[in-house]
Amino acid sequence: MTTEMIPQRELTAEDYITILRRKWPLIAILAVIGGVLGIGATQILPKRYTSQTVVLVEQPTVPGDYVKPVVNADTNQRLATMQQQILSRSRLEPIIHKLSLYASEIERLPMDDLVSRLRETIEVTPVQPMARTNAAGLAGFSISVAFGEPSVAQQICSTVTSMFLEENLRVRQRQAEQTTDFLTNQLKTAKAKLDEQDAKLAAFQRAHLGSLPDDQSTNLNFLGGLASQLDAATQAMSRAQQDKAFAESSLSQQRAAWQAALEGRNPETREQQIPALEAQLTALKSKYTDDHPDVVRLKSDIAAAKRTAEASEEKNGAAEAPATAEAEPAQIQSLRAQIRQYDQVIQERTNQQEEIHRRIRLYQARIEASPTIEQEYKALTRDYQSALEFYNTLLKQRDLAAMATDLERQKQSEQFRVLDPASYPDRPSFPDRTKFGLGGLAGGLALGVGLTLLLEMRDTSVRSDRDIESLLHLPVLAVVPTLKVTSSQAKTNQPLVPVART
């Protein structure tokens, strides 16, 4: 039973199963055709062979705690930078000429297009460390090259891998050498500044010798010692002045007695001079010991006076010779010598006082100027210490950079090591027959299902009681099954068997 148009109704799982049973030959045929076409396409499409190698990032043989590397850039970042450099035209064009790539197209196509095609065949993939190793950074990377000929793909992969290894060595060594050279130049500049500050500090120390902050306590000690010396010199000069005054008084008395004796007046006799000398001796003993030269000399004068008095008594007062013809007595000459000696002592003590006063003024000036000098000295010392610390820091960094450079030259730092050499592909990586066959089969199935749905949507046949209810909007009271009579049943008059419903 057919009708012009059947309103759309919701299909159930049973309806889909019925449609699949009815249209499965079409779907199967299209799936098989799609798979065959996919496999056939693998025979038509140009083949590409992929050569691959794995490069590991080896850690330095000397731990970073002993020699700190100067190349601190992240390995991923350094790899990306090297990839941009190696895959540039200046690096890939020599490979094209060396391996005679694209020989049939090199004359008619621009070199930029050929370089772009070669760049598309090269793929660099970072290899991250496994999670359970807890390793930081990059474990390595893989390089794969897809080309139409397996041997050429292997050669390109080997060449590119060698370029990565050489570039890594060159970049690390160049960066280490540049760092060392930079630190060396900075060290020279710092050394010049340090020498300048050292010269300023030395000149300041020479100009203010004895007035530096470290000399403050010494100056105070010297000033105290000079005060004691000044007191001692003052006391010594006072004693010398007293002794001089006493000697001048004795000299005056002696000269007066001597002059009186010469002029014939009633002079003091020797017996009268002896008490005066003994009184002078008593005064000297109160200040000096018996071993003092003045005490010894005065004792000698007293003894001589006593001897003279005894001799005068024996001669019964004999007249002395004229005074004008005699020289001054020894006592008077001795007193004059003492006075001159006291004058020398007083002069020496006066000079000593002046020298002590001069030195006291010098040390007082140093102490008074000490705060200002200390401030200037601290500023110079601070600048010198800053320059010295900066120089020592640069010197240490330069030495570390030099060791890191030697480490790079000896290839003991972080290196790229080829784990697997470039492989020789024994079968093409594109097109893959399995993938293309499965893809064609899936495409055929999709096409068959889509075509089946389209045919069912355009089909107006009534195939079930639900189609009648949807068409007439009336309930179905009875269903007459389809009766099919076979040839054997017709000959034997067997009962009919319903085979379908319409």
* CATH architecture label of the largest domain: Orthogonal Bundle
User: Strand percentage, roughly?
Assistant: 5-15%
User: How many whole angstroms does the radius of gyration measure?
Assistant: 65 Å
Order of helices and strands: HEHHHEEHHHHHEHHEHE
What is the count of DSSP helices, taking H or I runs of 4+ residues?
12
- Structure classification: alpha+beta
CATH class of the largest domain: Mainly Alpha
The separation of the N and C termini measures 7 Å
CATH topology of the largest domain: Helix Hairpins
Write the layout of secondary structure elements.
Elements: H1 13-44, E1 49-58, H2 75-86, H3 89-98, H4 111-121, E2 122-127, E3 140-147, H5 150-207, H6 216-263, H7 270-287, H8 293-314, H9 330-409, E4 415-420, H10 433-458, H11 465-472, E5 481-484, H12 487-492, E6 497-501
Antiparallel strand pairs: 1-3, 1-4, 2-3, 5-6
Helix pairs in contact: 1-10, 2-5, 3-4, 5-9, 6-9, 7-8
What does this 3D model show about the protein?
The strands form two sheets. This protein has a four-stranded antiparallel beta sheet. The chain has a two-stranded antiparallel ribbon with strand order 5-6. The relative contact order is 0.16. The chain folds into four domains: 26-45 and 434-459; 49-176 and 410-420, Bacterial polysaccharide co-polymerase-like; 215-393, Helix Hairpins (Orthogonal Bundle), CATH 1.10.287; 461-502, no CATH class. The chain starts with 12 loop residues before the first helix and ends with a strand. Helix content is 66%, strand content 8%. It has helices at 13-44, 75-86, 89-98, 111-121, 150-207, 216-263, 270-287, 293-314, 330-409, 433-458, 465-472, 487-492; strands at 49-58, 122-127, 140-147, 415-420, 481-484, 497-501. Helix 1 runs antiparallel to helix 10 (433-458) and helix 5 (150-207) runs antiparallel to helix 9 (330-409). With 502 residues, the protein is an alpha+beta fold.
